[in-house]
Amino acid sequence: MTLKTDTSTQSATAGLPQVSLARNPGIELDLDWALGVQANTSAIERRAASLPGRRSVKKAFQAAWLCKAVSLIDLTTLSGDDTEGRVRRLCAKARQPVRPEILEAIGMQGLTTGAVCVYHDMIETAVRALEGTGIPVAAVSTGFPAGLSPLHLRILEIEESVKAGASEIDIVISRRHVLTQNWQALYDEMAAFRAACGPAHVKAILATGELGSLRNVARASLICMMAGADFIKTSTGKESVNATLPVSLVMMRAIRDYHARTGHMVGYKPAGGISKSKDAVTYLALLKDELGPRWVQPDLFRFGASSLLGDIERQLEHHVTGAYSAQYRHPMG
Amino acid sequence: MNIPDIFETMDYGPAPESNAEALEWIATHGGKFGHFIGGAFTKPAKGFETRNPATGAVLAQVSQADSKVVAEAVAAARKAQPKWAALPGHGRAKVLYALARLLQKHSRLFAVLESMDNGKPIREARDIDIPLATRHFYYHAGMAQLMEAELADRAALGVCGQIIPWNFPLLMLAWKIAPALAMGNTVVLKPAEYTPLTALLFAQICDEAGVPAGVVNIITGDGETGAALVEAEVDKVAFTGSTEVGRAIRRATAGTGKSLTLELGGKSPYIVFDDADLDSAVEGLVDAIWFNQGQVCCAGSRLLVHEAVAEDFYKRLKVRMDGLRIGDPLDKCIDVGAVVDPVQLAQITSMVDGCSEGEVYRADTPLPEGCFYPPTLITGLSAASPLMQEEIFGPVLVSTTFRTPVEAVELANNTRYGLAATLWTENVNLALDIAPKLAAGVVWVNATNLFDAAAGFGGVRESGFGREGGWEGLLAYTKPKVALKGAAVPVPFAAPEGGTRPDLDRTAKMYVGGKQARPDSGYSQAIWGPKGALLGHVGIGSRKDVRNAVEAAGKARGWGKTTGHLRAQILFYLAENLSARAEEFAGRISDLTGTSKAKASAEVEASIARLFTYGAWADKFDGAAKPVPMRGVALAMNEPVGIIGALCPGEAPLLGLVTAISPAMAMGAPVVAVASEAFPLAATDFYQLLDTSDVPAGAVNILTGPVADLGATLAAHLEVDTLWNFADPALDADLQSAAAGNVKRTWTQRMDWSAPQAEGRAFLQAASEVKTVWVPYGEG
């Protein structure tokens, strides 16, 4: 077992306005624990399938929940054709995600998204565009999305991104370590990434759609947390299957288990495929029920999403006017 | 609360389902309901109020049916039955299909009404009760369609009296009415006093669906109405409810010839092995014991956890319990609704308050005023604790721990009940080993409370008998098309003046546990032939001999775990050995009964053939894999029914015995047979064949003596699971009444024992019970 070397960031908060918790310092790799975890696919799917029927929020509560969802979005652009102009437009949307008169009508002025998430080359643009807003910039890193570039370059990439001003780094794990059950390698890699992040928070992308089983998702979740991940995240958005409720249930339960045993609270980020207001509410209900209300805050939960915001905007306008809205009534990001 | 405040607290807030339409429907009936008889509602009469348990508000006035009303309803059903049964299956299928469609079309109205009348969360009524009820009608529309082709030798029973409980009012109605109608029966159904409304709404849609007048009759009332319905001129009584009432119904119908199915209480085990997905097993408990406020006959109410993970498991469970939301059943965001009635609440409260052992944990979650009970966990109990044995019928889970799989099975089966069982393990070897060992009619592996019309549901032991759903469920609503008549019950030949004596005295004893045993009474009786010859003596069996034989049979329960191939070999061997002594047996039959040598030889040949038949069946009475609507299988396994007490026919001294014991042997059910009272010596001669044919000790036990007395003792014996009366239907009243003790199955048959109907599936079905094992699967 390898002891993590980086303990310098235990109490650091990266200066993020919404962060108030001590970071997860990680623990020694505990394989007895990780490998003892089971995940029964059918049972997990049943729980996930029945949840939307068990939880429902209406009227003002629905509007408030949707505003909360906005505040939890990592507004994301991760395309090969991203330009500075495109990123500036996205940042403007992050600062003003919903039309001001709608926010005024519901008393939610000042609402912003949780963060903006971009590739490394767009960090500086984003940081400048968000100056003074307190909205953090997250960068995907470590050879995103496949994570198959040389390890030292992946670590260097993290360091460069932190230097460029990213306060959150979304790393991708090496799926092969999970598939070949090389848990030590997974732990070591994650610990190295965490160390490279320094004060920046690290989100571990498991690429759950490529891990083969929910049991592997559960085990990889625990091992990444043991190695010091601040967040665990489902997907890059580039896999054929991204965030799902069953996967989210497994990862949330792993977070709960980790918290129960170590006292450390680790965040959760489902990414990819969440595009409807109803889905967002369902995810938040699952989060609240499985992990408790404390997790429903930007320091412990994010949506990795690009099109979700548009649907929420229409729902909020409907809440205010009573009439269904149209997409073109809302400024694009 | 304004939006910025909610943004901080992230409360769920109210999410009410409107009750306007349901109230309006009640109002269109003036808030008062009569009975639905002969296709029309009667004028509302004196009766009682039905209330919303969540609010205490009166919903409607319903009428109390007395025996006169019951008789009218039964008469209406009787009048409609021949025409309904004569309708081609396709005709009945269309009506059942229309019922399914109408349930679907009015699904929200049914769901809201159910929630209001019963107190169950709207989520459950909407997502579980109503869709399952609808599915039941679709499924049985198909059964009506297929009846002529697939059940060509079966016919409707006639008029069915059906009494259903308050926990799943519409769903239980569907379970009762759909198969009855599909098979050409007509029904008089009584919903529970607390929850009559959805049945009355159903009555209304029967008209829309084109159900002919009199085919479905709904009468409302309390237990007295139910009792009157049981007493009425019905051909069948189907009851779902408490074991206590089930027993009373068993006694009330004893000897009447009414067909009976009982789906009764339970204290179902919920077993968590150390390799289970613990979080999913915790979540499963939410669906097991906090589903419908725990008012579920098959609720997983007895939690058995492996000691190694118990502490961890309880910790997780308590956290989950604290997250349950209790309150207004019509709120779409509620997990646990109202208990059905203050009477029930008081019952739950007093049972839990009376528990002086263990540690009681109540969910740390707000509890509204009124008819609500908090989700409760009681740990640290032992099998001896009353709450581990008694059905609470509320949201109360009791628990203890186990060390090994063997101990888990012992604890699970340490109950009078046997309705359902749940087990959680990721090990397929363990799951498929344990499931058959559990005394339960339904076993769920890594899931709980799964239901479907294609999968049989019903219990063993004091949880009742009969199955609902699947092909097996249709047995309870049909009878053989051709009714067979038996011969008159023979009487023994009297001792003559003088008479002849055998050259050498021969002593026939009892056959118990593979050995010949002297009668405990120390009394014997002489058996005389028709021409005054003393043929020998047999022991006069008594209570003690029954006790010994049942004990020996109990030790032979492992017989059912042997392979069908092995049992087939033994049956063939028995036939072979009988064949070798055919002449001797024919002579004995002739001497005993006075029948001709040719007829006696024919009886021996028929007996040999029958042994062959069941040798053939032993490895061919297949179960089924049911196509339930999920990723997984529901296995219908034919298991031995338990210990069979069999009263052999007086006539056919050899064939009658073989008819009784060989299907039992084929299924691996240990049997205690009472030999022909008039002509017992063929059975006692048979001992030697059993001895020389590798039949395991205790698998077949034979007693001689007075059938009425031995039958009565067997009927009352609490370890005997089934009583077959092939001897004398006149005994049924006493036997069936005594059988109520442990709610044992009874089966009475009289026929020409050489008829083709005297063997085959019907006998194998009587010697077995279907266990449905649900195995959801999937990975990824």
UniProtKB/TrEMBL annotation, chain B:
<dbReference type="InterPro" id="IPR029510">
    <property type="entry name" value="Ald_DH_CS_GLU"/>
</dbReference>
<protein>
    <submittedName>
        <fullName>Aldehyde dehydrogenase family protein</fullName>
    </submittedName>
</protein>
<dbReference type="InterPro" id="IPR015590">
    <property type="entry name" value="Aldehyde_DH_dom"/>
</dbReference>
<feature type="domain" description="Aldehyde dehydrogenase">
    <location>
        <begin position="532"/>
        <end position="746"/>
    </location>
</feature>
<comment type="similarity">
    <text>Belongs to the aldehyde dehydrogenase family.</text>
</comment>
<dbReference type="InterPro" id="IPR011408">
    <property type="entry name" value="Aldehyde_DH"/>
</dbReference>
<dbReference type="GO" id="GO:0004030">
    <property type="term" value="F:aldehyde dehydrogenase [NAD(P)+] activity"/>
</dbReference>
<dbReference type="InterPro" id="IPR016163">
    <property type="entry name" value="Ald_DH_C"/>
</dbReference>
<feature type="active site">
    <location>
        <position position="263"/>
    </location>
</feature>
<dbReference type="InterPro" id="IPR016161">
    <property type="entry name" value="Ald_DH/histidinol_DH"/>
</dbReference>
<dbReference type="InterPro" id="IPR016162">
    <property type="entry name" value="Ald_DH_N"/>
</dbReference>
<keyword id="KW-0560">Oxidoreductase</keyword>
<dbReference type="Pfam" id="PF00171">
    <property type="entry name" value="Aldedh"/>
</dbReference>
<feature type="domain" description="Aldehyde dehydrogenase">
    <location>
        <begin position="46"/>
        <end position="482"/>
    </location>
</feature>
